[in-house]
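Lecture notes, continued. The same structure-token format from the folding unit now serves as the input rather than the output. Read the line below as a description of shape only.
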């Protein structure tokens, strides 16, 4: 039987935004917004905040989250997820929801969980969204992905991918930083060494492709905002506040 857990890795020591998980957005810590949205997803057994910092852990306990303390030696959020997954009994799948996605769509999390449950042999699943008209696909911070006919990833890149040689229009896809894994694959993934492609692009998912793993990519129109800097936080807070006003107006 398929049992999926959402794990939200959250660390204090962000280079560009120290203490980011506890930054207040619309009166709540950023990580609380992520947890609340993940908790609304269907097909998920539990939602866990994974951190090595007691300030984050205490705040998460305060708003009712299940918390797993992880080693400060974890290099990435994926390593943090794997450490927690290794301890959990009876778990078949893990969904890694980054702790800086306060606008993540619960329905997208549900789709990842449902896809993994329906295809037990699938190692990994993620998501992508078409670039908005005002977005620049050439921006290296916006990761592009190209797919085969089965909606599996061929490659991810910070470069323009594919390159429109004749100047024609192309519906570029922007990768979203949410991942689902089979527990078995995740525990294997973190044992593999960084490959040349991953090192060149600084994209962890390329390690899976270099080892021949299949990554299913779900297309969505739900583009959330990742909070990497204080200015991103201002933009996310504006959207959260607008959403709250709209909900209040409907009541």
């Amino acid at each position: 039987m398929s049992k999926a857990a959402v794990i939200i890795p959250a660390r204090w020591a962000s280079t560009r935004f120290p203490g980011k998980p506890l930054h207040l957005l619309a009166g709540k810590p950023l990580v609380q917004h992520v947890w609340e949205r993940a908790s609304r997803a269907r097909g998920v057994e539990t939602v866990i905040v994974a951190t090595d910092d007691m300030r984050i852990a205490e705040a998460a306990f305060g708003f009712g989250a299940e918390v797993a303390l992880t080693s400060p030696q974890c290099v990435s959020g994926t390593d943090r997820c794997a450490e927690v997954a290794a301890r959990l009994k009876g778990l078949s799948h893990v969904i890694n929801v980054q702790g800086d996605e306060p606008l993540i769509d619960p329905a997208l999390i549900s789709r990842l969980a449902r896809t993994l449950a329906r295809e037990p042999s699938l190692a990994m699943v993620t998501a992508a969204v078409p670039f908005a008209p005002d977005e620049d696909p050439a921006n290296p911070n916006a990761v592009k992905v190209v797919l085969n006919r089965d909606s599996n990833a061929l490659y991810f890149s910070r470069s323009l991918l594919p390159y429109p040689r004749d100047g024609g229009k192309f519906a570029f896809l922007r990768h979203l930083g949410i991942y689902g894994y089979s527990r078995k694959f995740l525990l294997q993934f973190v044992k593999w060494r960084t490959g040349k492609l991953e090192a060149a692009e600084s994209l962890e998912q390329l390690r899976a492709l270099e080892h021949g793993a299949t990554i299913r990519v779900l297309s969505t129109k739900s583009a959330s905002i990742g909070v990497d800097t204080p200015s991103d936080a201002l933009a996310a807070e504006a959207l959260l506040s607008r959403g709250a006003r709209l909900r209040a107006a409907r009541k």
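Point for the exam: The first helix runs from residue 30 to 39.
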